[in-house]
Amino acid sequence: MRGKVAYSSQRTRGEIMLYYGQTFKELRIAKGISLSTAAKNVVSKSFLSRFERNKTKIVFDKLYRLLLNINVSVEEFVYINNQRNGCHQPFHYEDTKDYVDQQGFENSNTLSKYYYQKWTKNHDEYDYVNFLKEKSIMEKHQFAKVSQNEKQFLYNYLFSKETWTHYEIRLYMSIISLFSPMQSFYLTQQMLKNGSETIDVNWNHQADFLYIILSTALIMAFQGNVPELARLIKQAEQSIHNEQYLYEKTELHFIKGLLIYLKGNRAVAKQTIKESIDVFKVLNSPKLVDLYSRRWQKFLNTQKNSSASN
Fold first, then answer.
1. Which residue, 84, 79, 19, is CA-closest to 54?
2. 3-class DSSP state for residue 215?
3. How many helices (H) and strands (E) does the chain have?
4. Exposed/middle/buried for residue 282 (C-beta within 10 Å: 0-12, 13-18, 19+)
5. Distance between CA 191 and CA 184 in Å, rounded?
6. What is d(CA 295, CA 68) in angstroms, rounded to the nearest whole number?
7. C-alpha of 62 from chain center
8. Which of 63, 113, 121, 306 to pair with 244, CA 20 to 30 A apart?
9. Each residue's pLDDT tens digit in the chain (310 positions)?
10. How many CB atoms lie within 10 A of CB 76?
11. CB of 223 within 8 A of CB of 181?
């Protein structure tokens, strides 16, 4: 689940765009990356220079690929840009991505073709992984189909990584739905084991860790895997040490309600679930209210079907 950007009422969307070049420049310089390296295979060095000086605009596809060159995600870039220009989101995750708009589909479709062509030309594993990442995003919304061999390749690719950088974490966030429940659990434990250096970089990276832990916990809850669910809840509690994690704290409270239900205390579980959904109501987030109401009903239906089959 990723948030939509909330813009300040003092600035229009077009005005905010003018500041993207300067933000990109600051990140590039901070990482010690040259103009030539940052622009490689995306735009010319002169174009990037003009963009950084706010002399020209840039389409999303090219900005996305430029950010890949400096190893910064779109979400992180927008967040830093908002902080730099005084445009703040109400909390880290404001809306859901259980949908895809035409723009999102076209971006993934374009990028999947781009990386596939690069891979067929140079057989670089990095390009193949990026191709499968975009393909998996399209599969989530029934626009493509990732084969079992491709899923296994991605699983092996991530599981074999001795160090999980920001790239591996973002990749896993995008494709976690491809894997079986226990594969997701094992990969999440692998991330926690091999990504400790990344989690200490900044709070936004910590939020990525939490997103994965909580997503995996939801999967375990729907499977009724109590030991694994309890372990993930404990890991999430250890990771939440920032007051900005309002959404994550609320989701964790919801997941605790599911664990309580699985342990047999249904009255307390229902009250815990209600408290979580009420927070989203107070935050005036109707899509989150709807999402978690549907998750709760789906969980109850899963438990009912499981009891019937036993």
1. 19
2. helix
3. 17, 0
4. exposed
5. 10
6. 33
7. 20
8. 63
9. 333 323 233 333 333 344 688 889 988 998 889 999 999 998 999 999 999 988 887 766 678 788 888 888 766 677 677 777 665 443 333 333 444 555 566 777 888 888 899 999 999 898 999 999 989 888 877 778 999 999 999 999 999 998 888 788 888 988 998 999 999 999 999 999 988 665 554 555 677 888 899 999 999 999 999 999 999 999 998 887 655 577 888 899 999 999 999 999 999 999 999 999 998 888 778 888 999 999 999 999 999 988 777 6
10. 19
11. yes
Residue type, 300: L
- With 0-12 / 13-18 / 19 or more C-beta atoms within 10 angstroms meaning exposed / middle / buried, residue 280 is buried
Is residue 87 a contact partner of residue 8, using CB atoms and an 8 Å limit? yes
Residue type at 157 in one-letter notation: Y
Q: Which residue has the tokens 């989101």?
A: 89
Count of Cβ atoms closer than 10 Å to residue 208 Cβ: 22
